[in-house]
């Protein structure tokens, strides 16, 4: 007998409600994935404003849930379990989703599972490519996180191999976009400009790649500063800024470091599958370079389609389904939202 | 009519059940914890505990009443998200009520009075009521100072009695009886949207000119 899992996501600026069907054999099908974004309200501030995001979550939560049930042609009473992002993320934003999820669980009389947003980014790949091999590696890259993870069991056992020591990759995109006069969020406009530019035009630094640096950690703060320095130098000399070349060279540096470290981790641990997910996974150069390097190293590369890579409720429903299937105990209704939930805590 | 009432606009995390027959409100069970940092953790457990004590299931609830502030934002949203999702999940309506009106509904002033709550940042939320408890002014947010009436209910009144120049009366926080009483006139119509009374704009500044990294 299959089960319906409702997933609720509110860790940043997207209010997401997803519905999935968990089959007895452990496979999971996507039924609905509705997202309301407040990104436009943050654009003029150049980054997510927590209070604005929290207000938008409260407004969007029930309407988004309604749309998901309509899309899936299901009733609320069809739900067998509810999963919600318990962290990490913005405290006030998480609180809206967690509060709503508890109330849905209480109203419907079904179990609640507070789950990890980062694990959700990996679990979502099973909706497109089927069960994950055990173990596999995951590279999470987005505006909020940059992490290299070893996944022995998506429902229970995730280990961090490395993460960014300063900015997330997506943050560096936003800051460089600002330097280049491109709009927020910076990922799509830089990707677009980079396609017209020469990635070898400027040799920007590759952070954390020295012999003494932590093998699997990342740093993008120096790169961001180097780009700003280069642009200011050109401005001072009265030169036109070759926006496309700067974008392409910056993007090359990001993609180079991310893929080099991920492939190295795979080789050293003898793991044959790499999943790349998170908002930056949609970046064209990152996926292209990852494909080249994984192919050369004989590693299977899995990248969920862009719609699944960004924050959504389907990823939380998918993770919830795997947690339910693994027989993990349900959460109590007094759980807290944890803005700093560590990645190895898959469910709370 | 069985009503579930929720309010998280003050440091009190409040949930309870009451029956409403005509104008008579009778409270069956009420759970209150004073903890400004635990709204998200406690509100749903309080709802379930109150239902258990009242000997009812949530399926039997006919309507929800929710205090919509004004109140410090994060805690307020915990209760409102809970009320909205409970109403959706149970297929019933949720009726908004100004949390200051809920305080005023059980205050026994016998003369015009204020309801005042703590807005933090050395400010208060307040509204003024006539002798019958009908709102005459507000809600507003501002620094505490004399507001033209000598009597006030609410935790903000206790906190700033000197600055407001008031004699304080009960209650300190919205109660289940106050919430249901204040919402009663709205039960005859379609419920208004469950929209928080924020009264303040979000703290956010648009970035100025980009800082240069080179001198
Ligand atoms: Zn994310």
TrEMBL record, chain A:
Boundaries of every Gcp-like domain copy: 30-317
Cofactor(s) listed in the protein's UniProt record: Fe(2+)
Any one GO cellular component localisation term in the record: cytoplasm
GO molecular function, one term: tRNA N(6)-L-threonylcarbamoyladenine synthase activity
SUPFAM superfamilies in the cross-refs: Actin-like ATPase domain
Binding-site residues for Fe cation, renumbered to this chain: 117, 121, 311
EC id: 2.3.1.234
Residues holding substrate: 140-144, 174, 187, 191, 283
Keywords noted in UniProt: Acyltransferase, Cytoplasm, Iron, Metal-binding, Transferase, tRNA processing
Entry's cofactor comment: Binds 1 Fe(2+) ion per subunit.
Keyword Isomerase in annotation: no
GO biological process: tRNA threonylcarbamoyladenosine modification
Chief location bin: cytoplasm
Subcellular compartments: Cytoplasm
Acyltransferase is among the record's keywords: yes
Family from the record: Belongs to the KAE1 / TsaD family.
Function: Required for the formation of a threonylcarbamoyl group on adenosine at position 37 (t(6)A37) in tRNAs that read codons beginning with adenine. Is involved in the transfer of the threonylcarbamoyl moiety of threonylcarbamoyl-AMP (TC-AMP) to the N6 group of A37, together with TsaE and TsaB. TsaD likely plays a direct catalytic role in this reaction.
Matches recorded under NCBIfam families: gcp_kae1, T6A_TsaD_YgjD
Classification via HAMAP family: TsaD (MF_01445)
PANTHER family the record matches: TRNA N6-ADENOSINE THREONYLCARBAMOYLTRANSFERASE, TRNA N6-ADENOSINE THREONYLCARBAMOYLTRANSFERASE, MITOCHONDRIAL
Protein name: tRNA N6-adenosine threonylcarbamoyltransferase
Organism: Amycolatopsis bartoniae
UniProtKB/TrEMBL annotation, chain B:
Pfam family, one: TsaD
GO cellular component: cytosol
Gene Ontology molecular function terms on file: transferase activity
Positions of the Gcp-like domain: 36-137
UniProt KW Cytoplasm keyword: no
Keyword Transferase: yes
Domain of life: Bacteria
Keywords: Transferase
GO biological process: one example: tRNA threonylcarbamoyladenosine modification
InterPro entries: ATPase_NBD, Gcp-like_dom, T6A_TsaB
PANTHER family to which the protein is assigned, alphabetical: TRNA N6-ADENOSINE THREONYLCARBAMOYLTRANSFERASE (PTHR11735), TRNA THREONYLCARBAMOYLADENOSINE BIOSYNTHESIS PROTEIN TSAB (PTHR11735:SF11)
Protein name, per record: tRNA (Adenosine(37)-N6)-threonylcarbamoyltransferase complex dimerization subunit type 1 TsaB
């Amino acid at each position: 007998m299959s089960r319906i899992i409702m997933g609720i996501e509110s860790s940043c600026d997207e209010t997401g409600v997803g519905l999935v069907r968990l089959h007895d054999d452990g496979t999971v099908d996507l039924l609905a994935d509705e997202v309301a974004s407040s990104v436009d309200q943050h654009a003029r501030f150049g980054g997510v404003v927590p209070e604005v995001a929290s207000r938008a979550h409260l407004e969007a939560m029930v309407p988004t849930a309604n749309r998901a049930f309509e899309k899936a042609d299901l009733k609320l009473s069809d739900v067998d379990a509810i999963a919600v992002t318990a962290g990490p993320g913005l405290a006030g934003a998480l609180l809206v989703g967690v509060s709503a999820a508890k109330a849905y669980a209480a109203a419907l009389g079904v179990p609640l599972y507070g789950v990890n947003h980062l694990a959700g980014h990996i679990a979502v790949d099973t909706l497109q490519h089927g069960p994950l091999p055990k173990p596999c590696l995951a590279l999470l890259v987005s505006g909020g996180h940059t992490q290299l993870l070893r996944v022995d069991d998506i429902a229970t056992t995730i280990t961090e191999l490395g993460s960014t020591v300063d900015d997330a990759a997506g943050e560096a995109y936003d800051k460089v976009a600002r330097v280049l006069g491109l709009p927020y969020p910076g990922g799509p406009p830089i990707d677009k400009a980079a396609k017209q530019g020469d990635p070898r035009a400027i040799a920007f630094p590759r952070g954390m790649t020295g012999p003494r640096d932590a093998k699997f950690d990342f740093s993008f703060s120096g790169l961001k500063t180097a780009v700003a320095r280069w642009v200011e130098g050109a401005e001072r000399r009265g030169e036109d800024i070759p926006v496309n070349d700067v974008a392409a060279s910056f993007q090359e540096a990001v993609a180079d470091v991310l893929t080099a470290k991920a492939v190295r981790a795979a080789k050293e641990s003898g793991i044959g599958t790499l999943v790349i997910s998170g908002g930056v996974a949609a970046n064209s150069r990152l996926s292209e370079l990852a494909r080249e390097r994984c192919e050369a190293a004989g590693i299977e590369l899995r990248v969920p389609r862009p719609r699944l890579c960004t924050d959504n409720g389907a990823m939380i429903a998918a993770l919830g389904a795997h947690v339910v299937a693994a027989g993990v105990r349900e959460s109590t209704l007094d759980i807290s939202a944890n803005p700093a939930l560590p990645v190895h805590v898959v469910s709370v | 009519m069985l009503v579930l009432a929720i309010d998280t606009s003050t440091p009190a995390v409040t949930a309870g059940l009451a029956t409403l027959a005509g104008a008579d409100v009778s409270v069956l069970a009420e759970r209150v914890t004073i903890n400004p940092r635990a709204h998200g953790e406690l509100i749903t457990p309080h709802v379930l505990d109150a239902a258990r004590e009242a000997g009812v299931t949530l399926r039997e609830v006919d309507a929800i009443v929710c205090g919509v502030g004004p109140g410090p934002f994060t805690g307020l949203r915990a209760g409102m998200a809970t009320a909205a999702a409970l109403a959706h999940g149970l297929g019933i309506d949720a009726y908004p009520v100004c949390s200051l009106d809920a305080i005023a509904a059980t205050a026994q002033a016998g003369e015009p009075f204020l309801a005042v709550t703590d807005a933090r940042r050395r400010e208060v939320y307040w509204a003024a009521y006539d002798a019958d408890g009908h709102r005459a002014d507000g809600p507003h947010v501002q620094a505490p100072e004399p507001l033209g009436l000598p009597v006030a209910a609410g935790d903000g009144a206790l906190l700033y009695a000197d600055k407001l120049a008031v004699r304080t009366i009960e209650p300190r926080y919205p109660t289940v009886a106050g919430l249901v009483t204040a919402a009663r006139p709205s039960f005859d119509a379609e419920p208004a949207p469950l929209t928080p009374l924020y009264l303040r704009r979000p703290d956010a500044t648009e970035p100025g000119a980009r800082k240069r990294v080179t001198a």
